[in-house]
Amino acid sequence: MQPGRNRLGRFERTSGFMGTSIYYAKEAFFFLFMNGPRSDDYLQTSSDERKLSKPLAEAVRLLNRAAKGQDPDALFLLAELNFFGNFTHPRNYKEAFRRYSALASVNGNSSAQHMVGFMHATGIGGAVGRDQAKALTYHTFSALGGNTRSQMTVAYRHHSGIGTPRNCNEAAYFYKLVADKAVAYARSGPPGGQSLQKDSYRIADENGGVYGEGASVVSSGVNANKAGPSSDSHAAFDDVLEYLDLMSRKGDLKATFSLGRLHYEGSRTMKRNLKTARAYFRIVARKYWAKDGSVLTEDNGIGRVASKAAGYLGRMLLRGEGMEQSFEKALVWFKR
Fold first, then answer.
1. What are phi and psi for residue 270, nearest 5 degrees?
2. In whole angstroms, what is the distance from residue 323 CA to residue 274 CA?
3. DSSP label at 267?
4. Does 223 or 172 have the greater pLDDT score?
């Protein structure tokens, strides 16, 4: 049995000169023409007078009419349009602040309160002067209303003493509100809870910090990467996948199992692919067990790797991941 055509998930490219050329041409096109920064000035104080398209202008007209009647949805959409510039609408931070403030006053919308607090804290776009006391007030009301971002903000402000005296008890209270939500989410879903991505990293790991690799505190001195020449610490994720795929094609079951686990767990740079993971796990399992469950070889090395693959297959059947949920079949694989 062989896995699907996309052995490497996101690292898909056709072999051969033409396939490789097309692959890199697409990558170059995206990098050069589709990956540029926005031209908007996040600190602009004057509104952009660009003419709206007819559909957008009509939508804004209808929203403005509804907003005059204090419709919460219309107020929120107008605020979002002006703050984020959605649907090519020009940014206008002063108008966004006015709409968020109106919505916060109408029904105490926690999202609107969070945004008003954020704008008071940063003074973004010159929409309003910076006022940390007002920022904390709005964030606190928003946090008590259940807004997760404000709960994190208020907890950090109390912990660090921003706009208020340090108070670890208050910080712990608001942090616990967020932690309880995370625990509830993790325990929901299929048996065993949600599958959480296990990939902690520091943003500075991307480029070595503000001043680059070796020149920043986070990547120099005691924090420097001390990996040896034979280590894969500096290897790109695609290179690791390519190497594992090569070894798997040569019959290395450990590499095949590793590919299955990578596709099952996913990472920050690769989405989970449960069907591909199942295919890799089945390849390993079929090297040790026949379809009727009889053992094909007495090699303990193959048996150890196959037992791990069987555990993952049982877990996937138990949770209904990439296949139909079946407790009976899951039990069979777990026994193996």
1. -145, 125
2. 8
3. B
4. 172
pLDDT at 290 over 70: yes
Q: Which residues contact 139 (CB under 8 A, 6 or more apart)?
A: 113, 114, 117, 118, 121, 150, 153, 154, 157
CA dihedral for 267, 273, 276, 279, sign (positive or negative):
positive
Q: What is the pLDDT of residue 141?
A: 96
**How confident is the model over 292-313, as a mean pLDDT?**
88
Distance CA 264, CA 333 (A): 17
Residues 6+ apart with CB under 8 A from 151: 143, 174, 175, 177, 178
Phi, psi values for residue 278, rounded to 5°: -60, -40
Does the pTM exceed 0.70?
Answer: no
Question: From residue 311, how far is each of 91, 253, 285 by CA, in Å?
Answer: 52, 15, 10
What whole-number distance in Å separates Cα of residue 66 and Cα of residue 86? 19
- DSSP string over 58-97: HHHHHHHHHHHTT-HHHHHHHHHHHHH-GGGPPP-HHHHH
Q: How far apart are CA 204 and CA 182, in angstroms?
A: 25
- CB–CB of 285/294 below 8 Å? no
Residues in the chain: 336
Cα–Cα distance measured from residue 164 to residue 36, given in angstroms and rounded to the nearest whole number = 40
Residues 6+ apart with CB under 8 A from 277: 260, 261, 263, 264, 312, 316, 322
Mean pLDDT over the full length of the chain: 83
- Give rounded-to-5 percent helix, strand, coil for the chain: 60, 0, 40
User: How many angstroms separate the CA atoms of 77 and 100, rounded?
Assistant: 10
CA-based angle 94:97:100, to the nearest 5? 150
Distance (Å, whole) CA 70 – CA 104: 11
Q: Which residues of 227-236 are buried (b: 16+ CB within 10 A; e: fewer)?
A: eeeeeeeeee
